[in-house]
Amino acid sequence: MNYFISQFGHPRGKTGKFLSKIMNISNKKMYKANMSKIKKGMKVLEIGFGNGKQLQMIKKTYPNAILYGVDISKDMYCIAEQRLENNAKLYIADAESLPFDDDSFDAVITTDTFYFWNEPEKVLSEIKRTLKSRGIFVNTFNTMYASSVGKARKGDGIYQECTLIETARRLDLKLIGRKKIGLCKRLNIFRKGDNDG
Ligand SMILES: C[S@@+](CC[C@H](N)C(=O)[O-])C[C@H]1O[C@@H](n2cnc3c(N)ncnc32)[C@H](O)[C@@H]1O
Question: How far apart are the C-alpha atoms of 168 and 164, rounded to whole Å?
Answer without folding.
Answer: 6
